[in-house]
Amino acid sequence: MADRHEQLALGVSGVSHAFGALQALTRVDLSIRPGEFRLLLGANGAGKTTLLSLLTRLHRLQSGEIRIFGQDLLSAPSNALRHLGVVFQQRALDLDLSVAENLAYHGALHGLGRSETATRAREELENAGIADLMDRKVRQLSGGQARRVEIARALLHGPDLLLLDEPTVGLDAGARSWLRAHAADQCKKGVAVLWTTHLYDEISEDAQITVLDRGEVRADCPAPELLKSTGQSTYEAAIAALQPGRNAA
Amino acid sequence: MNAARFSAASYWRCFAGVFVRELLRFVRQRERFVAALVRPLIWLLIFAVGFRSILGVSIIPPYETYILYEVYIVPGLAGMILLFSGMQSSLSMVYDREMGSMRVLLISPLPRWFLLLSKLMSGVMVSLLQVYVFLAIAWAYGIQPPPAGYLYVLPALMLGGFMLGAVGLLLSSLIKQLENFAGVMNFVIFPAFFASSALYPLWRIQEVSPWLYWICQFNPFTHCVELIRFSLYGQLNVPALAIVAVCASGLFGLAVVAYTPIRKAVPKGKPVSAGT
Question: Using CB atoms, which residue from B5, B99, B272 is nearest to A21?
Answer without folding.
Answer: B272
